[in-house]
From TrEMBL, chains A, B:
It catalyses: O-phospho-L-serine + 2-oxoglutarate = 3-phosphooxypyruvate + L-glutamate; 4-(phosphooxy)-L-threonine + 2-oxoglutarate = (R)-3-hydroxy-2-oxo-4-phosphooxybutanoate + L-glutamate. It comes from the Bacteria. Pathway: Amino-acid biosynthesis; L-serine biosynthesis; L-serine from 3-phospho-D-glycerate: step 2/3. One of its GO terms (molecular function) is O-phospho-L-serine:2-oxoglutarate aminotransferase activity. It comes from Rufibacter radiotolerans. This is phosphoserine transaminase.
Length: 356, 356
């Protein structure tokens, strides 16, 4: 089977080999307080810095999930006012976390399937954190990175927090123009689920320091605690070492291939998928604004039958695509275009969609 | 190498095979919202219920770590008063979490290397949660399960929360006499780290319900949210499916062998280790009270040389033991006696310790 699902997703082709090597070397029996683990964390750090072109002041923390980072970022970085761009289920969940934590959470909202135009947005003065979902996994809407940078220019005060869960590593964000970003590994990195990665700059750490002792900032998972451990390439509690090991090696594989190559391939495959959808009589792109169509999660309306029939027919051919999210479950299919999905697999999928 | 370290630890012998099967079946690409995942969670549930003899009213939740459960249990189950039995680094961390969360955290403390006698304890009226570390990984002190049951008889009011991180699955707790327990999988279950397991009874859920809406109970990770998802064998966020898969299969392997057999073997191996330490001129058991000597984490004083020399010499023979914890780093060694450590490995270790 080839998994075109938007996470958990097709494993990156090198995962099985790395896992076998790790078992042979007994990596998963080594103490997370050992030099061997510190070396692994440092190696992950070097690889991720190179992949994202991170400025020197960024730190890299590991959590159990990206969901956890919604909560921890709000606990460590905000006392009162947050602002959320909501256009789908995952951007709404960041907002939910802010409400649960009792924050004064303001929102700009557009309908499912639409994106934001940075120049039209107004963010209230006094906003501590501006939460943007760079790629909405539920609707297949992305925010072009240039708009992210425009947001920062227009609103330099709030910390700019970017959920790039299903956009990484494709999205070529200039990290000097945001303050933090996060993702989980079971999407664009093609890894088993169970690890969140949090990229945090000095400006975040300074803000976090002002809140320490004044509110609950997350205990063992506060930015202060994570940073304290990070300085020795350690973690506050026993982490998902297997996930960190695989991430490190897959990122190194991606670097060997070249992140520019991966981005160009992603764009070419996305172009192929959207062109097919536009020309098809049976399918159509869900996202009408071309600039907001995600290159990494392609959502298609199924025009003349229940989506479940398409999903079943494809599965019989060994191709697994995702169903629509929530209320769109039987009206749409979602196709992940992650780095693990090579060109030939897209060719096969487009061909099968064309003869359904 | 054989890892006698108290977590991460020697992998259970069947882990590599299960991992290969899961890769072949592409388990880690399947959606965590699929029926296949629900079936896996249900299978984990059945297996863990059988292993621990859980009463029907218990639910089983998954988290990123046992550390997270310290925090989540306090958020969901307490508004004000907690009481902690502290006799080592890990019991102290549960207390730390309570203080960070602003609870009125009371404590009974005994020196490192000592345990508690249930009949001597006094727990203040009004205590909401009584936190007990059944097996202190740092010092090798355990609380016999009969004392746990005595505690419940003497103090029926507070919720009795049992950290059995390095005691499970050996500790034969009567779960009708406690209210919740938790562990991580990289110790007694011999799995890669990155998964916490939380066993929660109806009494906890009732208490949690009284706090919902009155305080922050953990958002996506509150008992209410976890229970809501658990009822369909789902999780609030994408879980460590690989960890859940391996746990399920290793627990089934343990059930096939028989938990009674595993407990008897554990006791026999522990007896062998402690007898050796008592008779040795170079080593001695750290825990003086025999009833408080952990069968699963055996801590030895090294009498006539730095512990690092012993550790290095053993490593040269392919045997990895843990160092002492914290201030005892160079005075002690710690030997995990988990189910993955078969009798023949203990024979080899005892022999090598004897001729050092």
């Amino acid at each position: 089977m080839v998994y075109f699902t938007p996470g958990p997703a097709q494993l990156y082709p090198t995962v099985a080999g790395h896992l076998q090597t790790a078992l042979d070397k007994q990596i998963f029996s080594q103490s997370h307080r050992s030099q061997a683990f510190k070396d692994l964390y440092q190696r992950a750090d070097v690889a991720l810095r190179a992949l994202f072109g991170l400025p020197d002041d960024y730190a890299i923390y590991f959590t159990g999930s990206a969901t956890e980072i919604w909560e921890r970022s709000l606990q460590s970085l905000t006392a009162q006012n947050t602002f959320h761009l909501v256009n789908g289920s995952f951007s709404k969940k960041y907002l939910d976390h802010a409400k649960w934590l009792g924050r004064n959470a303001q929102v700009a909202e557009v309908p499912f399937g639409q994106g934001f135009y940075a120049q039209d947005l107004q963010v209230p003065a006094g906003t501590e954190l501006l939460a943007v979902t760079q790629n909405e996994t539920s609707s297949g809407v992305c925010m072009p990175v240039t708009d992210l940078h425009t947001l920062r220019q227009a609103f330099p005060e709030p910390l700019l927090s970017v959920d790039m869960v299903s956009g990484a590593p494709y999205a070529a964000i200039d990290f000097s123009k945001i303050d933090m970003a996060f993702f989980s590994v079971q999407k664009g990195f093609g890894l088993p689920a169970g690890l969140g990665v949090w990229l945090v700059n000095e400006r975040c750490r300074q803000k976090a320091a002002t809140l320490e002792g004044r509110q609950y900032t997350g205990g063992h998972y506060s930015i202060a605690a994570l940073q304290d451990q990070y300085q020795q390439f350690q973690t506050p509690c026993t982490p998902n070492v297997l996930g960190i090991y695989l991430l490190t090696h897959v990122v190194e594989d991606m670097l060997a291939k070249g992140i520019d190559v991966i981005r160009k391939e992603t764009e070419a495959k996305a172009q192929q998928l959207y062109s097919f959808l536009e020309e098809s009589e049976h399918f159509a792109p869900f996202v009408s604004e071309p600039a907001h169509r995600s290159p990494t999660v392609v959502v298609a309306n199924v025009l003349d039958k229940p989506a479940s029939e398409v999903i079943t027919a494809l599965k019989a051919k060994g191709l697994v695509v995702g169903s629509g999210y929530g209320a769109f479950k039987d009206k749409q299919i979602r196709i992940a275009n992650f780095p693990a999905i090579y060109q030939e697999k897209i060719d096969i999928l487009v061909n099968e969609l064309g003869i359904l």
